[in-house]
Amino acid sequence: MRRTLLAILCLLQPATTSAQTTGDPDAGERGFTRCRACHSVTAADGTVIVRGGATGPNLFGIIGRPAGTGEGYRYSQAFRDLAASGFVWSEADLASFVADPPTFLQQRLGDPAATTGMGFRLRSGGEDIAAWLALQGTSRSVSQRTKDQTP
Ligand code: HEC
What we know:
- The protein is mainly alpha-helical.
- It is 42% helix and 3% strand.
- The N and C termini lie far apart (63 Å).
- Heme C (HEC) binds next to helix 3 and helix 4.
- Keywords: Heme, Iron, Metal-binding, Signal.
- InterPro entries: Cyt_c-like_dom, Cyt_c-like_dom_sf.
């Protein structure tokens, strides 16, 4: 009897992690201290999630957001070109962008002369930050918003 109970309990044990992303959002939240000198995370309704500098655009909802479309931010030419190409941020792309912004843009745009105003490189942990950012305004809510705007 006891053994059966144990077996049942084992079966009921929930799967602890569902690996949706490769990054660790908790580590990413801590890692975002590296970004906040230049970036805030502020929701559309003005709620400040992370207070940060305004050198770079607001990163709320960045995963699933088309590049270069942060409201009220004046982007470099490279970012305007990237926006024109219809590029949308995924977690993987964001991680490789922060590791080496100029190279990322040069490869995406096929322009070896492309430069960016983001003069910062993150050696490691970009996946974690991307996973945390993905939770700050989900891509689902972004595509929902886009859908709502379509007549
Ligand atoms: C020294 C300031 C600075 C730091 C630190 C910095 N950034 Fe940036 N970031 C910028 C600037 C400036 C831009 C706009 C670049 C342009 O227009 O060329 C930018 C752009 C971006 C974009 C593109 C946004 C969009 O709307 O398409 C992402 C994503 C981004 N940064 C992520 C990060 C992350 C994540 C970190 C921390 C690991 C970080 N940045 C750290 C200055 C910074």
